[in-house]
Amino acid sequence: MIYYLLYPLAENDSLSFLNVLRYVPFRVLSATMTAMLLTFGLYPWFIRTLQSKQIGQVVRDDGPESHFSKAGTPTMGGSLILLALIGATVLWADPRNTMVWLVTVVTALYGAIGYTDDALKIKRKSSGGLSTRGKLALQFPIAIGVCVYLWYGDSGLPSDWIALRERLAVPFVAFEKHPMELSPWLYVIFGAIVIVGTSNAVNLTDGLDGLAIGPVMINAGTYMVLSYLAGLTLFGFDMARYLDIPSIGSASELSVLCGALIGAGVGFLWYNTYPAQVFMGDVGALALGGTLGTIALLTKNELLSVLLGGIFVIEAVSVIGQVIAFKFFGRRIFLMAPIHHHFEKKGWAEPKVIVRFWIISIMLAIASLATLKLR
Description:
4 strands, 15 helices, two-stranded antiparallel ribbon, two-stranded antiparallel sheet, mainly alpha
């Protein structure tokens, strides 16, 4: 909004300094700082408000004993992350960019689903909120709607994205030389699975203090680089074509949103780090997962997201594998799923699990960025 309102004034000689708004890196930094200041400034008040309304965490009875002391810790803290994320994005991103609005809509709607889930848990004083089928029944229509628009919609979508929408970028494979294409119906199904899968995988990861927000920020930082490069042109030189990645001019605006996500995440982590003063809740986890999944689609990094979000994938696979093994064979693969609880059961201290998962996420991000040149 600031870009839309103030940048045209740069034509006035006395206000020529506003020309800096045209540069995406400046607005990325501005969005990051705005979201960070909002969360740092508002969380103390927000935590007190949650405490006064007795909006506290409900702990699983079958979970690690060390978690029992966390019962009653303020939860639904992710709602302030979303406020800072969306607020900073609206302020600093170009409001004419359809891609930014698509991600923002998914973030808000998945946040509403998470809010409903959290509210039911608090009302019932139980760790069970919406059923798995109930969540999926709400998530998939939103994801399918976005994917249908991306495939069939022409109004508002950039022409360079439309030209590439049937193609997938395969990690470590040259995009132009070895194209991989999907039919419309297969793309819609695949794209919806990416969004919904990422959303629920992040939600499953959110089980220890700071465990989920760390990889979320690392993923956002990587997407910030990838989206900026996808739309970067220097002195008439197309960086995306040089790197042989999808060239999508409008995608660079998504880096502003990624910056806002990092800023909001840093502010939240200050209060969520071990021992946590506030938890994210499903309102944050489902929404942020949906955000990352949608960005992966819009930047044509659907397949790369499996590598980049490897921590989320491992957490989700551990749960799926545990359920299948117990249901069909009567055995458990892990002492407890998701897998971070398995390591707790083995005697690892919670901070050790968290930091080591962060380190793995950083390594995966480096590997993901390496695909820019290793082709």
